[in-house]
Every structure is written in structure tokens, then in C-alpha cells.
Write a structure and sequence with these properties.
This protein is mainly alpha-helical. It has two domains: 211 residues, Growth Hormone, Chain: A (Up-down Bundle), CATH 1.20.1250.20; 242 residues, MFS general substrate transporter like domains (Growth Hormone, Chain: A, Up-down Bundle). 79% of the residues lie in helices and 3% in strands. The chain is built from 17 helices and two strands. Strands 1-2 form a two-stranded antiparallel sheet. Strand 1 and strand 2 form a beta hairpin. The longest helix is centred in the first third of the chain and has 34 residues. 47% of the residues are buried.
């Protein structure tokens, strides 16, 4: 593998994070406060769009797996996906002078166009990674580490620059969100086009490709349903993603009601983003040394221990919360360095056992934990707030909110998330059987099969 390949993934993931950051962080704010769409309609748009996105995530694997386009099996989807994503982003922020109903329809179509192709982009990105690395699991780890590092660098850029950039453009016109999203989108397009060009030798078109280890769509689902290892990875990743999203959604309540100073939230977020970026570089060699399975176990152990400490001792102690969360960031960097490799190893295991190449389909399941986390985190967050005495009251025409027992809220917040991480640790310890040595054995044998055909 050329040494430039991991850096191609590094810069492509910076571009991806930037190209989708404006809709990810500011879409609802834009739609309600600038486009004039009511919160109820915005919620309906998001519901319809997320159902469509989840549905596409379930079928994108067979589509990519069975495709055989002249720009390459995976590179073609990278090219198609990035253009569709940016068309979707443009539609969401164009804000034409039309009726609210028509505007809502445009936004809904744009949201689907932006999110659904992300599934095919990620599937193609990591399917191409398997082609590039061949039988080398070490090269796969090198790429996944750079993917994580690129995302962490992008998080700092997005946190520090995006909103001030939007406000600066708005001060000179009305299309700040659109202009910033287009500039970021150009970076996404450029980084993906560079990857498309530079990886041509690893994804060559062949008319006979469909005949190599061909497998029907029904077989793809059937074989994957019987693959116990992908189920362990899928469930554990869904749980840990739900935990991460709960921290993101409930953290603001911690600063508002337990600390009594909501302005500490952006301070904490900036500190933790910088720490997470440093951790992504520090912990990648550690993950490589201890192996993928042990990295997943250790990362979950960090999560269980740190969130237990938050639940027991972080009430009214903001710096304790920040320090413990920073330690948690180092633990998260371990499994972040492993990244998609847990899914790839499960895919190689399935090919090794069945002789049928369904790797693109199995890797496409990497998209599912985020969808599950988004669906599960909202009701769990509502349950936690309700059981902590969260109240809304209208006083003199103004909405007033409070939590009757902030300490109980912090206790729920920490210990429930600790329990989620503990379940992940137990699953990887007792149910996940693919060691690094076994993964290397599966990959080597599968490469021989592919070469012979």
C-alpha cells in the first residue's frame, strides 16, 4: 500500500465532516429562525427523512455489492454519492421566496438526498479500503486510525469556525448558511475527487466481476443473519453510539441545572474536542499493539468507569466532569482507531465460512448504529428527564424550566450510560471471538480464493 493512502482517507474524512457539518449542527435553527418553518413541520420533515434514510441504509449493501460500473465497483459510488450529498445540502439551505409548504417539500427532498447517499459513500469508502489493503490487516488499521484522526481535526474546525463564519456572511447578506455550506461542500468534493483519482489502480472495472463469488440478495441477508460475530459488533456499536448521543443531547441540561452555568458548555466542548484530537493520535499506536478486540473491550471499560464517576461525583463539580470526560476521550480513541475494522473482520469471517463474497453488504451495516442511536437516544433522554423531575411552566407569559432534583438527574445520567458501556464490554469479552490472528488467517485465505477466481 502506498504511504499516501491513509492520508487520502484522513483528508477525505475532514472534507466529509465539513461538507455535512452545517446541516448536522444548524439545520433546525436555520429552518425555524431564518426559513420561517414551524417546529412542528420541521419535526415532520426530520421524521419522514430519517425513515427514508434508515430504509436506504438497509438496502444499500446489496446495491453496492451487486454493482459493476466502469469507474470501479466502489470508486463510482464515491463519485456519485458526494455530488448527490451536495445537491441535497444546497436544496436545504437555498430558501427560495415561495410558500412554506413548497419550501418544506424542497427541504425534505434535500435532507433525503444529503443523508441517504452518505450510506453508499461510507460503504464504498470502506469497501475500497478492503481492496487497497488486500491481506494486510495492519494496513487496514493504519487507514482506520487516519479516518478517526481526520474526523477529530474536523470537529475542532467545525466547533471553532463554522458559526462565526456563518454570522460573518450573514452580516453581509442573507445567504450565510448556504454560502458556508457550499464552501465546505467544495472541500468535500475536492477531497473525494482526489481519492477517486488516486485509487484507480485498486478498483479496476471487469466485465466478469459479477461472476466472481456471485451471491443473491436473499443469500446476503440470510448469511448475515446467521453470522453471530456481526450481530455482536452491530449491537455493541448501536449501544455505544446511543451512549455518545445521550451525552451530546443531555449534556446541556447538566450545565444548566447541575452546574447552573450553561455558558460552561461550549468551554467544555472545545476542551474535549482538542483532547479527543490529541487522543486520536496518541492512542492509535496503542490500539495497533493490543489488537482490535482488546481495544473494544478496554474502550468500553473506560466508558463504564468514567460514567460511573460522573454519576457519583460530578454534580456541581464541572471541572471533575471535564477531566473525567477527557479521560473517557482517550478510551474512546482506542475503539475509534479500530473503527470499521470490527465490521470488516466479521465480513471476512463470513466470506471464509461461506465462500460467498458479501463483504460490501456486511460493511454497509456500519451505517446502522448511528440510525439506531438517533432513534433510541430521544426516548431514553425523555425518560431520564421525566424521572429527574423536569418541569415546564409558563410564568407571566414566559416559559420557565427546571429540574427538581439535579443530583438525581446526574446520577441517572452517569450510571445508565455506565451500564450501557458495561454491556458492550461484556459482549466483546464473551461473545466476540475474532482475534487479530484469526482475522489475519481469514483475510489471507479469502485473498487466495479471490485470486484463484
Amino acid at each position: 500500500m502506498p504511504k499516501s493512502i491513509p492520508w487520502l482517507y484522513f483528508f477525505q474524512n475532514i472534507g466529509m465532516a465539513l461538507g455535512t457539518s452545517v446541516p448536522m449542527y444548524y439545520l433546525m435553527y436555520f429552518l425555524t429562525d431564518f426559513a420561517g418553518i414551524t417546529p412542528a413541520i420541521v419535526a415532520t420533515i426530520l421524521l419522514i427523512s430519517r425513515v427514508a434514510d434508515f430504509s436506504f441504509a438497509l438496502i444499500v449493501g446489496p446495491i453496492v455489492q451487486k454493482s459493476n460500473m466502469k469507474w470501479g465497483k466502489y470508486r463510482s459510488w464515491i463519485l456519485i454519492s458526494v455530488f448527490l450529498i451536495q445537491i441535497g445540502v444546497f436544496m436545504m439551505f437555498i430558501n427560495p421566496d415561495i410558500t412554506l409548504g413548497a419550501k418544506a417539500i424542497i427541504v425534505c427532498i434535500g435532507y433525503i438526498l444529503q443523508n441517504a447517499p452518505m450510506n453508499s459513500l461510507i460503504t464504498a469508502q470502506f469497501g475500497l479500503m478492503a481492496n487497497i489493503t488486500g491481506a494486510s490487516t495492519e494496513n487496514r488499521m493504519a487507514i482506520s486510525a487516519k479516518v478517526m484522526q481526520g474526523m477529530r481535526v474536523a470537529t475542532i474546525i467545525v466547533s471553532a469556525v463554522t458559526l462565526p463564519f456563518i454570522n460573518y456572511v450573514l452580516a453581509h447578506g442573507r445567504n450565510g448558511f448556504l454560502i458556508v455550506s457550499m464552501i465546505y461542500g467544495a472541500m468535500m468534493l475536492m477531497s473525494s475527487l482526489v481519492m477517486f483519482v488516486k485509487t484507480k489502480e485498486f478498483d479496476i472495472y471487469s466485465r466478469d466481476l459479477k461472476n466472481v463469488m456471485s451471491v443473491g440478495v436473499g443469500q446476503m441477508y440470510g448469511q448475515t443473519l446467521r453470522n453471530s460475530q456481526i450481530w455482536v459488533v452491530l449491537i455493541a456499536n448501536s449501544l455505544s453510539t446511543t451512549a455518545v448521543l445521550l451525552v451530546a443531547s443531555l449534556g446541556i441540561y447538566y450545565f444548566q441545572y447541575s452546574i447552573g452555568n450553561v455558558n460552561m458548555q461550549p468551554v467544555s466542548a472545545t476542551i474535549l474536542a482538542i483532547v479527543a484530537c490529541v487522543a486520536s493520535f496518541v492512542m492509535a499506536p496503542v490500539a495497533k499493539k493490543i489488537g482490535k478486540r482488546n481495544s473494544a473491550i478496554t474502550s468500553a471499560l473506560f466508558g463504564a468507569a468514567c460514567m460511573t464517576l460522573v454519576g457519583l461525583f460530578a454534580h456541581q463539580n464541572v471541572w471533575f466532569y471535564i477531566v473525567v470526560s477527557a479521560v473517557l476521550g482517550f478510551g474512546a480513541a482506542l475503539v475509534g482507531a479500530v473503527g470499521v475494522n470490527l465490521f470488516l473482520d466479521a465480513a471476512e469471517y463470513q466470506l471464509y465460512k461461506t465462500g460467498k463474497d458479501t463483504r460490501a453488504f456486511v460493511v454497509s451495516l456500519y451505517n446502522i448504529p448511528m440510525k439506531v442511536g438517533l432513534a433510541a437516544s430521544s426516548p431514553i433522554a425523555a425518560f431520564m428527564l421525566t424521572n429527574s423531575g423536569y418541569k415546564q411552566e409558563v410564568v407571566d407569559g414566559a416559559l420557565m424550566t427546571s429540574i427538581s432534583n439535579p443530583q438525581i438527574f446526574v446520577r441517572w445520567f452517569g450510571l445508565l450510560l455506565a451500564a450501557i458501556y458495561l454491556i458492550c464490554m461484556l459482549m466483546y469479552t464473551f461473545l466476540y471471538k475474532i482475534t487479530d490472528a484469526k482475522a489475519a488467517e481469514y483475510v489471507a485465505e479469502n485473498q487466495k480464493r479471490l485470486a484463484s477466481q
